[in-house]
Each structure stands twice: as structure tokens, then as C-alpha cells.
């Protein structure tokens, strides 16, 4: 009897490490031979075979032709029962390589779209290009998984393989058990960040510091708030210098705290009061789910993904074009509602727990 085999594909090792280790473990426990194909030389737990494929983030890079050839050889040499591919480039190349593989008819191809690159409010030309690419690749897909409702509705318009289907799964799962057990010390955190502990309100954003994450609107809103409000940013990125400049111009530099990359995010979340997420584009933001699980009220931009997570019982969803003014208004005039939101978000976050998502994925994989 031949071994059952599964291959996970993503364009970089970091994507596998960040999101898919529990899924590799799941398949190992089910007796599968587990493979990973991604760009990098990292060795993963629960992985039997690692293939370093030269995927490039830029879909037009000539190296992706080489990546296609490398991956097709892997597929021809191994008769995989399931291929689960992720990320735009990894997902497209994997489906094209599988289409031309000698094992195409016997392999179940699953693709998770972690936020289509066509969406409301995007450049129409870019939307046309990315929609066309996704529509083409969908023809060679057995199961197309979307992580937000807007993408789900768009995917339903695609023609998949015969008997193919579109599924909605809200993310890859957050470890609510670890979050629940995480300890924190607000007084120590305030001391470490040199913030006065006197009626202080801590706003928090977690994520890469770039223009898409849009943290500058929070800094501008901070200038309209009492001096007891401080803004904590966890993450690194090329836009830090610009944000520091804005903070100085608005005379709030001493109330904006850049903590860089942190391994203690859950502890920091529990030390803060309100999670603010003004991003311009998302698939389904993990940091918002984690903040909810930590019991934070969430104030987020009205975009795809965000409004899948946050409702009026757990926070506020506000328009991008007036985020600065609406944020300051909410923090000054509606803060009495925040206590009820904390408990509600903790409870709602169970929908996105790793346990709940793994259970749904087991059904999709056919492991039940």
C-alpha cells in the first residue's frame, strides 16, 4: 500500500512557519508523508521533505519560470494525494505545474486565497489583471478557500474543476489557549516604556510599519486627544522615519512608542486598552483576531476582512477617509462602551481559534 502524501506550497518559508505548522502536524498524525515547497532552506517540524523553490514575490520575475520547472519536477516525481497552495505566486505556479503534471488527475488541488489582490477601491487595471489570473487558475482547482466574505462572493463567480467548490474559512486559526494563559504586568510595561501610570489610556497597533497599515492617521488623531493617551506600535518597516516626523510635527512624539519586533505580543495586548487598525487593504487580519482574544475593543477601518471580524458589539468600523476625526471622536465621547466590548470580543474570538479552524479544515481535507 502506497504512502499517502501531502504537499504545502507557499512562496517563502516565512509563510509556512507563521501559519501552517499546525497543519503539517495534523497530516503527520494522520499518517501522511508531508512535503513543503517554498523559497528558503528552513527545515520545518513535521516535514519529511523540503523543496527549496525559487519563487519570487514579483509575478513577472523570470525566476518564476525556473520555479515552475523545479516544482513540476517535484510533482512528477511524487504522486501527491493533496496539494495545498498559498500566496498569489505560490498558488498560481503550483496550480499551473500540477495541471501539466503526470499525476494531475489523481491529485486534489486546494488553494487558499489569503486576500485576493483585486478588491473594492483598488486600481481598476490591477483588479482586471489579478482577477483574470485568479479566474484562469481556478479552472485547475478542486477547492478554493477564501478567508473573508467579499472574496468568497467573488470566488463563487469562478469556474473550478469539475465538482470543485468554494469554501469560506475565517483564517488559519489563532491559538486562544496560549493567549488565555499569557501573563502580563501593566505596571512593569508602563515602567519599561517610560509612560506615566496616571489615568493613562494605551492605544495599540500591531503590524508592519508601512503606508498600507496607515498608522499615521492614529498619530494625527492622538494630537486631538488628552495627554493621557499614548500610542504603542509593535512592528518594523520602512515607514517608521515618516511616522516619527509626523509625530514631531504634531507635538506628540513623546506619546508615540515604537517597540519594534516583539515576541511578547499577547502580553503587550493585555497591557493595552484599545486596539486600533486603520489598514487600507487586508485579507483577514490575524492581529485583530488576537486582539479580540486578548479582550481589547477594536477600532478598525471599513475594509474587506476588518468588517468580517469587528461589529458594533466589539468595537467600531470607520471609513478610511475620515478615520482620524472619527477615531478621536470615539475615544473622547464613546469610551463608556468599551468595557462591554472586552467580554464580547473574547467570546467571539473562539470562532477563529486554531481548534475550530483545524476541525473545519479536517473536513475539507477529507480526514474525517
Largest sheet: 7 strands, parallel
Instruction: Name the strands of the widest sheet in spatial order.
Output: 3-2-1-4-5-6-7
Count of DSSP E strands? 13
The span between the termini is 20 Å
Shape: elongated
GO molecular function: glycosyltransferase activity
Keywords: Transferase
InterPro entries: Glyco_trans_1, Glyco_trans_4-like_N, Glycosyltransferase_grp1
Domain Glycosyl transferase family: 198-347
Q: Quick gist of this model?
A:
The chain folds into two domains: 5-173 and 354-365, Glycogen Phosphorylase B (Rossmann fold, 3-Layer(aba) Sandwich), CATH 3.40.50.2000; 176-352, Rossmann fold (3-Layer(aba) Sandwich), CATH 3.40.50. 40% of the residues lie in helices and 18% in strands.
Description:
This protein is of the alpha/beta class and 368 residues long. The protein folds into two domains: 5-173 and 354-365, Glycogen Phosphorylase B (Rossmann fold, 3-Layer(aba) Sandwich); 176-352, Glycogen Phosphorylase B (Rossmann fold, 3-Layer(aba) Sandwich), CATH 3.40.50.2000. The protein contains 16 helices and 13 strands. The chain has helices spanning 13-19, 21-29, 63-77, 88-99, 124-138, 149-155, 176-181, 186-192, 216-222, 240-249, 265-271, 286-293, 306-309, 323-333, 338-348, 354-365, and strands spanning 5-12, 33-39, 49-52, 82-86, 108-113, 143-146, 165-168, 201-206, 229-234, 256-260, 274-277, 298-301, 315-318. The protein has a seven-stranded parallel sheet. A six-stranded parallel sheet has the order 10-9-8-11-12-13, sandwiched between helices. Helix 13 (306-309) links the parallel strand 12 and strand 13 (315-318). The two termini are 20 Å apart. The model has no long low-confidence stretch (mean pLDDT 94). It comes from Faecalibacillus faecis.
Amino acid at each position: 500500500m502506497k504512502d499517502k502524501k501531502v504537499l504545502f506550497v507557499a512562496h517563502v518559508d516565512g509563510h509556512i512557519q507563521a501559519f501552517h505548522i499546525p497543519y503539517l502536524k495534523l497530516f503527520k498524525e494522520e499518517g501522511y508523508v508531508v512535503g513543503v515547497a517554498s523559497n528558503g532552506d528552513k527545515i520545518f517540524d513535521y516535514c519529511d521533505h523540503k523543496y527549496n523553490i525559487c519563487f519570487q514575490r514579483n509575478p513577472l520575475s523570470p525566476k518564476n519560470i525556473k520555479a515552475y520547472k523545479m516544482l513540476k519536477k517535484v510533482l512528477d516525481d511524487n504522486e501527491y494525494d493533496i496539494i495545498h497552495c498559498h500566496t498569489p505566486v505560490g498558488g498560481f505556479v503550483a496550480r499551473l505545474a500540477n495541471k501539466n503534471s503526470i499525476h494531475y488527475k489523481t491529485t486534489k488541488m486546494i488553494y487558499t486565497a489569503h486576500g485576493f489582490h483585486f478588491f473594492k477601491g483598488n486600481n481598476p487595471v490591477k483588479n482586471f489583471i489579478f482577477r483574470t489570473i485568479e479566474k484562469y487558475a481556478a479552472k485547475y482547482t478542486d477547492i478554493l478557500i477564501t478567508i473573508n466574505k467579499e472574496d468568497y462572493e467573488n470566488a463563487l463567480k469562478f469556474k473550478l474543476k469539475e465538482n470543485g467548490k468554494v469554501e469560506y474559512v475565517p483564517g488559519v486559526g489563532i491559538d486562544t489557549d496560549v493567549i488565555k494563559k499569557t501573563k502580563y504586568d501593566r505596571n512593569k510595561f508602563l515602567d519599561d516604556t517610560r509612560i506615566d501610570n496616571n489615568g493613562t489610556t494605551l492605544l495599540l497597533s500591531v503590524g508592519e510599519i508601512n503606508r498600507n497599515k496607515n498608522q499615521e492617521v492614529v498619530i494625527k488623531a492622538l494630537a486631538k486627544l488628552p495627554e493621557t493617551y499614548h500610542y504603542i506600535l509593535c512592528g518594523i518597516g520602512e515607514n517608521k522615519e515618516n511616522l516619527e516626523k509626523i509625530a514631531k510635527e504634531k507635538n506628540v512624539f513623546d506619546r508615540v512608542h515604537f517597540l519594534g519586533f516583539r515576541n511578547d505580543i499577547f502580553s503587550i495586548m493585555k497591557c493595552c486598552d484599545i486596539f486600533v487598525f486603520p489598514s487600507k487593504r487586508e485579507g483577514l487580519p490575524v492581529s485583530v483576531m488576537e486582539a479580540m482574544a486578548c479582550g481589547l475593543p477594536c477600532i478598525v477601518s471599513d475594509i474587506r476582512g476588518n468588517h468580517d471580524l469587528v461589529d458594533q458589539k466589539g468595537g467600531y468600523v470607520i471609513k478610511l477617509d475620515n478615520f482620524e476625526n472619527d477615531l478621536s471622536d470615539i475615544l473622547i465621547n464613546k469610551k463608556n462602551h468599551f468595557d462591554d466590548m472586552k467580554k464580547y470580543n473574547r467570546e467571539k474570538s473562539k470562532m477563529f481559534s486554531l481548534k475550530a479552524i483545524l476541525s473545519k479544515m479536517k473536513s475539507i481535507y477529507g480526514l474525517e
